[in-house]
Amino acid sequence: MRKGFEILKSFWEEEDGIGIVEIILILVILIMLIVIFREQITGIIESAFENINGGAEDVNSKIEIK
Fold first, then answer.
1. CA 14 – CA 35 distance, rounded (Å)
2. HEC profile for 44-63?
């Protein structure tokens, strides 16, 4: 029984693959959040571009070329 405990303990303390697993989990969570909030994200981006384009038209209308 002691040998099984030692194998389990050495497996638990093994850290070689932890970095890759963490990166994969973070990517999965980010993808899930993007899928869940896709409509809200696209709405925010569209609104930002509309504001940018609207602001550019105002700036361009005030420019005078001499």
1. 34
2. HHHHHHHHHHHHHHHHHHCC
Contact assessment for residue 26 and residue 19, using Cβ atoms and an 8 Å cutoff:
no
Task: With a cut of 80, say whether residue 64 has pLDDT above it.
Answer: no
* Among candidate residues 13, 42, 52, 32, the one with its CA nearest the CA of residue 60: 52
Q: How far apart are CA 3 and CA 11, in angstroms?
A: 12
Domain boundaries of the chain, sorted by first residue: 14-58
Residue of higher predicted confidence among 23 and 63: 23
pTM comes to: 0.48
